[in-house]
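[AMINO ACID CHAIN]
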Amino acid sequence: MVKYLGSKRLLIATILDTIAQCEDVHTVADLFSGTARVGYALKQAGYRVISNDCLAFANTIATCYVQADYERVADDAERIINDLNRLPGSPGYVTGVFCEQSRFFQPKNGERIDAIRAQIARLSLRPELEAVVLTSLIEAADRVDSTTGVQMAYVKQWAKRSYNDLELRIPHLLPQSPRGPGRALMMDALEAARRVHVDLAYLDPPYNQHSYLGNYHIWETIVRGDSPEHYGVACKRTDCRERKSAFNSKPRAEQALADVVKAIDARYLLVSFSDEGYISREAIEGILGERGPVHTISVPFRRYVGARIGIHNQKGDRVGTVGKLNNTEYLFLVGPTKRVSEEAQPERSSVSAAK
């Protein structure tokens, strides 16, 4: 799975252990799915999963890892991916914008991305199969990019991995869960909260001002297959300026969370949030306390890899250091449970891969 700021890769075990304390949970909704790291783990653990995210690339990845099942798509996906790997490069939007106007990829790999994306469009694949193939392309591009993990900027000198040749691989698909088929939605979180009916809802909203669309605008463009107007050194899509989430606004984030929490039809809620986010632990416990007893689990973490690398400008030059290298991730569980430990063991590594 791709590198992703806000990842819960290292919280997966704690999340699964916490949900295991909840009785009769068969269906789980993940309303801010990101790159489906949590949804994938839940499906693998046997739950029926409904993933939701408002971004096209996140919906595509969730369709691959949560909705698509190995037995239905693996053979066709392998055949198509093998064919795509034989395509020669053909320069297009990605090459011109992300290799020449900016330096996110070496031109040889930009040309391959362009050629493969164009061929996927020509194939007119059924939605789940297309999602698997597009996810393979995103993950292949992620392995040869020249960033520190987000697409706010590219590094000044080409990253070592950027010299590698782009190669598609078959995503690690799962068979259908014994609890039933998964589903990937592409909605605003509040709209999804009003529509789903599940045993447990997992919420991992944005913490602060950083928009995931801005951080991963290239994946959005590749998945959409469009040629958007762009701005700035990072060549961001212009809709990065227009598509604003209330969760990225300090004055609005608390009410946005309260609205989603109130709207959810679920016996249990599990909320993940960081102590460096806009909403305080006390405020979250107050919001969730309206629904029932709140169990809070604290997990110490080293911050994401970019914090240790330092602060860089849009050209990739280091212009400062980050003062805080550690933070605390909170898991807030609402609902009747067995005894839940209030503090998990600290993790050894930063949260830096897929969400």
Q: What stands out?
A: The longest strand covers residues 265-274. Residues 107-123 form the longest helix (17 residues).
